[in-house]
Recover the amino acids of this structure.
């Protein structure tokens, strides 16, 4: 009965946690209109002959707006364009106030300047006539660590009288857009939402994280802080219980308590830092430097230089309360005692899992990683309680556990280099190019293999273990991994670990990437050609100043397998939303109750993306049939080549199925 009540309580707790997550995260949708930036304009009169037009910019957490006067070939800068001006003139250039951040961008190969949280852009004008009139547009670029918005425009109009040119203009109709084809421009964003392109990506990431957490828990079991406790704890449950059934029940409750404790730790990380902070960790340099130092400390701890322990009075206090308590509360306190006592071995593993989860897998990742870790940690206590005869056959404590700890230390050093690489690229230091990164990984792999072969020891006082098959196999795996890495020193892509190494652009030896050229840069022409040749079309909404678009081209489109499929099986249509080529006629459209002016070709493609696909961020990829209907969900920024290949293959399969069914 107590077991049933405990499990019901656990189930309710998990439901509460799930509700919290839903409130925090909402429902993820790739194709959507994002509005992370809010701009309000106003005019401030300074005397009778001077005025200042201010654009107050509020920036959502995790996003940034680029400054003025950016170098040529860089991201979209902030600027002001005047369409009509009378009775006044501009005085000086557009100025900006706020905390400006400078950072080297490895993709654009330049120092970029941007603002976070808020900024104010100001334009001073000199008034020569009380009935002055000025009309124009303020343009800026905005990005986060996943996507960039097309050039954002804020129309403004100020005058010294009631005159209003904007309101006297007639609205344009869609058919007035050059090249407009109603069949091709028909909105399909509701169809896109029926396709599940987000779930496979999240499912894969969460499954991998769950497995990583589970493996981490298994490794933690093999450490000197946990393994010796298993037989003692299980024997305690069996001896303390009146019968074997009660002993098994207590062991199950003990395992469930471990799961609750570690999942709570994962939830606490999320709730303390929040969604936006966790999402920003993957690209910000300072958090990655902190993680680099933390993993170095964890590795040194595993090497035996010192122990990372919680205050001793914590464990003794909890243990004393557990001894005085009975029932479910006593069992829970025993699980908490295990958590505290084993922290010197499990702490570095937990720390690594939380860091990796928070920076790479999204908001729910810390809890999912801890769930996998706790399941592995709790599993032996339940299994040995069910089958106590197995206790006689488990390996005894010995030097092999020291080898497990040291091996984990080498692994944490390798991942520490990964986080330092992110900071190195963010600041443009150039201290850890790809070749040096791979050389250090090769060195760590060789040292780990030699250690497992007993060539050297970190602690001479530790027991020297015999070389067995269980040390030979991981040692050979280390040597094999080192051999696999060697071709990377000469430029091999090393696709299996490309997500962890610096990009090919961070190589010492300059390399010119042969980017895939699109078949068409016009939507209507490309769609008509796809119908003619009987191939699906892939539309790529991109931008010259979109940093994440360049990353996709460099790491995904330049990949041989992706390039081959795109060239042979698709009609590639690339549309730049920041193409400044002017349209023949400026059009003013009524878009959902808001007036939008189309001045350039980039404006046209940006409007197409919003109107037809219900999205406004780049990069944005969508696969269409010959009638411009979606063949699946959209794809945004994710440099996982295998995931992008799956996206292409699903679209191709859907096209072939539709073709043969018709």
């Amino acid at each position: 009965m107590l077991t049933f009540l405990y499990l019901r309580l656990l189930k309710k707790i998990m439901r509460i946690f799930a509700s919290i997550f839903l409130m925090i995260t909402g429902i993820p949708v790739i194709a959507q209109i994002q509005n992370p930036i809010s701009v309000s304009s106003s005019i401030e009169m300074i005397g009778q002959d001077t005025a200042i037009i201010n654009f107050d910019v509020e920036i959502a957490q995790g996003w940034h707006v680029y400054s003025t006067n950016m170098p040529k070939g860089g991201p979209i800068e902030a600027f002001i364009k005047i369409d009509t001006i009378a009775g006044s003139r501009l005085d000086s250039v557009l100025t900006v106030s706020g905390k400006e951040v400078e950072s080297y961008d490895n993709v654009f190969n330049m120092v970029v300047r941007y603002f976070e949280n808020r900024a104010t852009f100001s334009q001073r004008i000199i008034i020569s006539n009380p009935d002055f009139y000025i009309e124009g547009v303020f343009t800026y670029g905005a990005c986060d660590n996943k996507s960039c918005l097309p050039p954002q425009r804020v129309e403004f109009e100020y005058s010294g009288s009631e005159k209003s040119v904007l309101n006297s203009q007639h609205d344009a109709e869609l058919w007035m857009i050059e090249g407009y084809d109603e069949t091709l421009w028909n909105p399909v964003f509701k169809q896109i939402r029926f396709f599940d392109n987000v779930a496979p990506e999240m499912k894969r990431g969460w499954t991998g994280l769950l497995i990583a957490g589970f493996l981490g828990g298994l490794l933690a079991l093999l450490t000197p802080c946990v393994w010796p406790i298993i037989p003692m704890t299980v024997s305690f449950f069996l001896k303390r219980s009146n019968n074997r059934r009660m002993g098994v029940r207590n062991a199950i409750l003990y395992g469930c308590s471990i799961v609750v404790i570690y999942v709570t730790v994962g939830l606490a990380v999320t709730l303390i830092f929040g969604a936006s902070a966790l999402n920003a960790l993957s690209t910000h340099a300072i958090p990655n430097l902190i993680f680099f130092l933390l993993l170095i400390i964890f590795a040194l701890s595993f090497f035996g230089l010192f122990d990372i322990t919680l205050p001793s009075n914590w464990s003794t206090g909890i243990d004393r309360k557990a001894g005085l308590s009975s029932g479910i509360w006593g069992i829970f306190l025993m699980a908490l005692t295990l958590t505290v006592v084993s922290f010197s071995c499990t702490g570095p593993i937990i720390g690594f899992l939380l860091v990796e989860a928070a920076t790479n897998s999204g908001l729910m990742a810390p809890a999912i990683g801890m769930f996998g870790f706790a399941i592995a940690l709790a599993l032996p206590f339940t299994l040995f309680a069910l089958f106590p005869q197995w206790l006689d056959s488990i390996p005894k404590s010995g030097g092999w556990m020291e080898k497990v700890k040291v091996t984990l230390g080498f692994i944490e050093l390798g991942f520490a280099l990964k986080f330092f690489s992110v900071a190195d690229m963010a600041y443009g230091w150039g201290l850890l190019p790809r070749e040096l990164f791979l050389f250090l990984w090769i060195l760590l792999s060789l040292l780990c293999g030699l250690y497992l072969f007993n060539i050297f020891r970190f602690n001479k006082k530790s027991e020297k273990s015999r070389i067995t098959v269980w040390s030979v196999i991981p040692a050979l795996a280390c040597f094999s991994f080192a051999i696999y890495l060697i071709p990377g020193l000469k430029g091999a892509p090393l696709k299996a670990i490309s997500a962890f190494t610096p990009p090919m652009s961070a190589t010492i030896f300059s390399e010119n990437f042969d980017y895939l050229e699109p078949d068409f840069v016009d939507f209507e022409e490309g769609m008509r050609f796809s119908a003619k040749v009987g191939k699906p079309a892939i539309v790529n909404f991109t931008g010259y100043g979109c940093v994440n678009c360049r990353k996709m081209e460099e790491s995904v489109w330049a990949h041989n397998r992706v390039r081959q499929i795109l060239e042979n099986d698709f009609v590639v249509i690339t549309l730049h939303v920041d193409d400044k080529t002017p349209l023949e006629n400026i059009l003013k459209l009524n878009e959902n109750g808001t007036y939008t002016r189309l001045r350039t070709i980039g404006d046209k493609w940006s409007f197409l993306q919003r109107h037809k696909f219900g999205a406004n961020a780049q990069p944005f990829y969508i696969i269409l049939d010959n009638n411009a209907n979606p063949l699946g969900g959209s794809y945004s920024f994710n440099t996982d080549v295998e995931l992008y290949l799956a996206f292409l293959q699903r679209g191709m399969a859907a096209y072939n199925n539709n073709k043969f069914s018709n």
User: Anything to note?
Assistant: The CA atoms of residues 247 and 555 lie 55 Å apart. The chain has a mean pLDDT of 75. Residues 244-273 form the longest helix (30 residues).
